[in-house]
Design a protein that fits this description.
14 helices, 2 domains, 504 residues, alpha/beta, 24 strands, 7-stranded mixed β-sheet, single chain, Aldehyde Dehydrogenase, Chain A, domain 2, Aldehyde Dehydrogenase, Chain A, domain 1, binds nicotinamide-adenine-dinucleotide
Length: 504
Amino acid sequence: MRDVLARLGLAETNPGAYAGAALEGGYAGRVESLNPSDNAVLAAVELATVAQYDKVVSEAARAYKEWRMLPAPKRGEIVRQMAEALRERKEDLGALVSLEVGKIRAEGQGEVQESIDIADFAVGLSRQLYGLSMHSERPRHRMYEQWHPLGVVGVITAFNFPNAVWAWNAMLAAVCGDTVVWKPSLKAPLTAIATHKVCEQVLAKNGWSGVFGLVIGGDKDVGETMIHDTRLPLISATGSTRMGRRIGTVVAERFGRSLLELGGNNAIIVEKDADLALALRGVLFGAVGTAGQRCTTTRRVLIHKDVYGELVPKLVTAWKQCRIGDPLAEGTLVGPLIDAQAVETFEHALSAAVAQGGKILVGGKRVDRPGNFVEPAIVEARADMAICREETFAPILYVMPYDTLEQAIDWQNDVPQGLSSSIFTDSFRSAETFLSASGSDCGIANVNIGTSGAEIGGAFGGEKETGGGRESGSDAWKAYMRRQTNTLNWGRDLPLAQGITFDV
Ligand code: NAD
């Protein structure tokens, strides 16, 4: 463990503010990063002050003035080198993700791979920031749209993707010509520092400083200053709906843009003609993967009444076989929850589910070992139970039988969140119904694969209380740029649009 930290340049106590180099002195207290597998201290971080935050943003604003004028493919070349640097450090960074947030080895490695993938994507994108051209109604006029960078982008990240969510934002923002200031979760500050250092070294080697800044500070001082800061035209924030409501409101009030990636309450519908072996695996990974701590975690499974009696016992058996333990050990499928508070939240949700008429079919207990381990639970539930409408960030799966596909789609949509959804079916008609305008209301709708584990190529995000933002692939890059419409007159007359004459 110490080797991994040392190889990534982490000390026992680390500065919490970086603008090119680390900023010295004047810290606002410290936070210890704990390993959720045993709650031992990994290392400490000195929290940034508001003055240090201010310095980081000033440096990013200074760097922006030059970075925006570097041709986009040249920015892409630097991002290509970052992808290479992340590849070289993938093993260690992935292990750090496992140590700091408890993801199993494969998922820790997978998270860093996602950062590499988005960096590769951004390299190609740097030559494809296309605008449209239009035919003007006026003779000898040319019209087109072009995309310019926005400025300094603020990125606020959740604990559960401490590496990839920043990369989703930063790699796109960088090729778009923006500079970035990152405020990570205080539950995963070490992954942020290590990730920042890997990319910062690449920038320094290319003669750049201030393009990526990092500020590890409290929500009440640094966080609130950041979201009110008019120097940041865009705040991209990933986290709970409670956090998003606050950030969305504050940023809208100052006419900034926000890109919100918030909570999910994702359902899988299993039709009676589904391949049940496939559905079983999809539900298992979706519900138990990352110990239920993904925004796309499967939280509800709606099963056609004709196959309910067959599928549910199979799920229960699979749940009993899940190996819980050290996330870095071979064969472990379920690591710990992030902290003791998360274990309590898990227990409260289960008590509420039982009080509302649910029945625990398997799991639901603390595991008798150090750290924040729980047994993933399956609860037989009804769609109208209040707890089924909430996102509990823990491995609890609510199962319920339904009669008709229409009813299942209604239940699936009848929650405040709208992130991810799936149907398992071999019926073309059922699949298309689910994907139609009268089907899933989520930002992500899948057929015969689960709700989690999205690829970077598509736009990622959700509707309703999930916040409406889109990140990652497709045309999500447009959120990091401003559009400008240009009309050029190369003639010797000045005709007005709509045929208006205005001569004296
Ligand atoms: P959280 O809301 O507690 O914290 C998220 C981030 O917001 C942290 O960096 C936190 O410090 C910051 N923050 C909170 N209040 C702030 C304020 N007033 N000003 C500035 N920053 C503030 O979330 P969490 O527990 O870290 O993560 C879990 C949540 O994130 C879940 O709800 C999950 O669904 C969601 N999530 C969503 C996505 C997505 O893409 N939709 C991805 C990952 C996680």
